[in-house]
Write a structure and sequence with these properties.
two-stranded antiparallel sheet; 7 helices; 69% helix
């Protein structure tokens, strides 16, 4: 893994996520919630699918901490712990997955974003002493996860174009 390029791409994904997918931008207003894809998490999913668990652990921690820093609420470190746990666990399963199928990429993106966003929202409300609002948290997590699942194959395809500089040793897509 080329750490400098990973840091640049992680920063770019967070910058695009906060600047472009915002209310008034490409965020979708659905039932009082602005649905936004988590591009940093999709980038972390790409790393989990193509790199070793030790490297994914460090990269996921950094991406999660950066996501915590740009988040509106919540405790610092919650996202980092969630990113680390889920993405590192997924990196152990990567050899048993068909990583190049669009369906697999979308399904993994949906599940990953849903689990992490739901856990982050419930934990943030719990630590703030607010009512948990689990059903509302599930609804917003599903909307964000669906948006990320739609964009994930395109983002992973773009990241595969950088497989040489990133150090990915998997064969490219067959067209």
């Amino acid at each position: 893994m080329r750490w400098l390029l990973v840091a640049i791409l992680g920063y770019a994904s967070l910058a695009i996520q906060t600047a472009v997918f915002r209310p008034g931008g490409l965020a979708l207003p659905i039932d009082g919630h602005w649905a936004r894809p988590d591009l940093a998490l999709v980038f972390g999913l790409f790393l989990a699918l193509y790199f070793r668990p030790g490297e994914v652990f460090v990269a996921a921690w950094c991406l999660g901490m950066a996501s915590d820093l740009v988040a509106v609420g919540g405790r610092l470190g919650t996202g980092a712990l969630l990113f680390c746990g889920v993405l590192t666990g997924l990196s152990y399963l990567r050899e048993s997955l068909n990583r190049r199928w669009i369906f697999t990429q979308s399904l993994l993106a949906f599940a990953t974003v849903f689990v992490i966003h739901l856990a982050w929202q419930v934990a943030s409300r719990y630590f703030a002493g607010a009512p948990l609002g689990v059903l509302r948290s599930v609804e917003t997590s599903v909307l964000d996860a669906a948006y990320a699942a739609i964009l994930a194959p395109y983002l992973i395809w773009l990241l595969m174009r950088l497989r040489g500089p990133l150090g990915v040793t998997v064969e490219p897509y067959e067209i």
